[in-house]
């Protein structure tokens, strides 16, 4: 299968360049929000609350996603002038980390839930499936920016999509790790929707998301060419493996009732709505 690289700039309005990366990330956020709203209806959570939740979660997630990327890629942001300093905030050019967005978004959700006296665990379950689906779409932004690729592919028989992509800056073929992760995120989305529908315990869907994605990310970090390596250790592999193990233990403890998280709130009956 042949897939051509695209111009990272989708179109221009005067001096403003609109990049495909920003378009895909925006669509991913809106798609994830749409799925979350659909799930919220199943749990009797109002649309007004979901709108406020969106306004809390997205800014926190974006800021934390960018900060975590900058923190672990300091060599990409040498600051010698105010212009260099401004590059730290240029997220439309790429460079955000979902590993930072998750705790950032969760913090935004926590604040919103406390303000409105809504169960945090139930809301995290509502968000989780859409998060996985949004991540799947967002990975095409990495394709547009020609980033998030793996090791070099030297076998001509494998130099084709979906196994590999041609990276112009490297003038060679590399593993299409962005695509691998996208497919796994789609699988994760299907699993999470099943868990969301069948689970009788709060937080099970969100913890399942953490288990799934941390394992997926640990595997991807093995192949990624831009992985952060300190002392010969791939930090992403180590960190995600530890996080996956902790998430799995917590998930099991919730399942066997050693950790009590409550039960999902059903939607109100028509005669009970105010």
Describe the protein:
The chain has 274 residues and is mainly alpha-helical. It has a domain at 9-151 and 163-193. The chain has helices at 20-42, 47-72, 82-87, 98-116, 120-144, 177-198, 204-223, 235-255, and strands spanning 9-13, 16-19, 164-167, 172-175, 229-230, 233-234. The strands form three sheets. The protein has a two-stranded antiparallel sheet with strand order 1-2. It has a two-stranded antiparallel sheet with strand order 3-4. Strand 5 and strand 6 (233-234) form a beta hairpin. The longest helix is centred in the first third of the chain and has 26 residues, at 47-72. The protein is globular, with a radius of gyration of 20 Å. The relative contact order is 0.12.
């Amino acid at each position: 299968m042949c897939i051509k690289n695209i111009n990272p700039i989708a179109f221009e309005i005067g001096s403003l360049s609109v990049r495909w990366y920003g378009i895909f990330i925006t669509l991913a956020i809106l798609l994830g929000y749409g799925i979350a709203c659909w799930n919220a209806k199943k749990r009797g959570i109002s649309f007004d609350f979901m709108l406020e939740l969106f306004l809390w979660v997205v800014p926190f997630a974006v800021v934390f996603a960018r900060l975590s990327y900058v923190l672990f890629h300091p060599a990409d942001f040498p600051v010698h002038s105010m212009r260099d300093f401004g590059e730290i905030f240029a997220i439309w050019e790429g460079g955000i980390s979902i590993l930072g967005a998750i705790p950032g978004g969760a913090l935004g959700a926590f604040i919103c839930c406390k303000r409105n006296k809504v169960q945090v665990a139930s809301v995290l379950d509502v968000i989780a499936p859409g998060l996985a689906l949004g991540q799947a779409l967002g990975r095409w932004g990495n394709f547009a920016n020609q980033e998030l690729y793996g090791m070099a592919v030297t076998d001509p028989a494998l130099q084709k999509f979906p196994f590999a992509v041609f990276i112009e800056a490297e003038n060679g073929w590399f593993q299409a790790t962005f695509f691998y992760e996208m497919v796994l995120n789609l699988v994760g989305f299907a699993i999470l929707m099943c868990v969301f529908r069948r689970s009788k315990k709060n937080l099970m869907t969100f913890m399942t998301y953490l288990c799934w994605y941390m394992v997926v990310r640990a595997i991807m970090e093995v192949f990624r060419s831009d992985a952060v390596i300190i002392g010969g250790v791939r930090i992403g592999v180590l960190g995600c493996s530890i996080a996956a193990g902790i998430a799995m233990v917590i998930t099991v403890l919730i399942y066997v009732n050693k950790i009590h998280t409550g039960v999902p709130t059903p939607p109100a009956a028509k005669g009970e709505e105010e």
